[in-house]
Design brief:
The chain is mainly α. It has one domain. The longest helix is centred in the C-terminal third of the chain and has 10 residues. The protein starts with 28 loop residues before the first helix and ends with a helix.
């Protein structure tokens, strides 16, 4: 992925591909690892 996190984003856990909080801090490590690049791309696209 070539996405760039926003400098002043709201994500404090570092998991968000956009830099803004999308709730991924609540995922277990296994759930987070199961996220595919497509999932991450979809979340990034929805935040535009």
């Amino acid at each position: 992925m070539d996405n760039v996190k926003k400098e002043n984003g709201t994500c404090g856990c570092g998991r968000s591909p956009t830099g803004d909080c999308i709730g991924w801090h609540e995922l277990t490590p296994e759930q987070y690892e199961a996220k595919t690049d497509a999932d991450k791309e979809a979340m990034f696209g929805d935040s535009k």
